[in-house]
Specification:
Elements lengths: L1 H32 L12 E2 L12 E7 L12 E7 L5 E8 L10 E10 L5 E5 L2 E3 L2 E3 L2 E6 L6 E2 L2 E8 L4 E4 L6 E4 L17 H12 L19
Antiparallel strand pairs: 1-5, 2-3, 3-4, 4-5, 6-9, 7-8, 7-13, 9-11, 10-13, 11-12
């Protein structure tokens, strides 16, 4: 009787272990295959104006940029990065996907992932979509750099992230070797801002034009940015 009970118990344990292992692996693989950061509470929220999102209603647009990476099969821009400033100069960066234009030709944004940059010092500068690695342009890179405005390239990186257009997630870049970012104000009398747009409406309208011009020479609409410590 004891031997029989032991055999049944052992069989039950093996079956239970198999089921649990299968469930865990299924969850892991499903998570790996998901596009966008589903763990981010802001994931999937759709907006045209940032104030439409309750959690970000006190934030104002700083700027945004379309990404050359991850274009559609027709060559249309699909992704962008935008930055917003909240209370106490707290900055957040949003990795977003452009949704199909409405009947009025307006584009809405879908949040894929975000990073909290927080407050940045006067000696720091947030830049994105204009960096390169080993002299090869890489529009997925977001970087917080030392603000050496007298140099043609910002090559002293404090932090860097990748807005991965294959996964829809923002990833920390550990090895920053070979990365630098263009100082678009270099050589100008006024080394201030790049080509900026004061409101998100202007950026969205420009994005709409870009989506309708797949064969247009590649261009980047530049604004501003920063990170959520991940």
């Amino acid at each position: 009787m004891f031997i029989r009970y032991k055999c049944v118990s052992s069989k039950f344990m093996r079956q239970t272990t198999y089921i649990i292992t299968t469930l865990v692996l299924t969850i892991i693989f499903s998570s790996c295959n998901e596009f966008g950061n589903r763990q981010n509470p802001l994931y999937g929220k759709i907006f045209r104006n940032i104030t439409e999102i309750p959690e970000l209603k006190n934030f104002t647009p700083m700027g945004g940029s379309v990404m050359d990476a991850g274009k559609t099969e027709n060559g249309d821009y699909r992704f962008g990065i935008a930055s917003f400033r909240g209370n106490n100069d707290f900055i957040i960066c949003i990795f977003e996907e452009f949704l199909e234009a409405t009947e009025k030709g307006k584009v809405n944004y879908k949040i894929l992932d975000t990073i909290n940059i927080g407050q940045i010092k006067e000696t720091e500068y947030l830049t994105y979509c204009n960096c390169r690695q080993d002299t090869i342009g890489d529009s997925e890179i977001i970087a917080l750099v030392v603000a050496d405005h007298d140099n043609e390239y910002y090559d002293r990186l404090i932090k860097a992230w990748r807005a991965n257009t294959k996964t829809g997630k923002i990833e920390i870049i550990i090895d920053k070797t070979g990365i630098n970012c263009s100082n678009e104000g270099y050589g100008l009398d006024d080394c201030g801002e790049d080509e900026n747009y004061d409101t998100e409406e202007q950026l969205i309208d420009i994005t709409t034009d870009s989506l309708n011009q797949p064969n247009e020479t590649e261009k980047t609409v530049k604004l501003d940015t920063n990170d959520i410590n991940k």
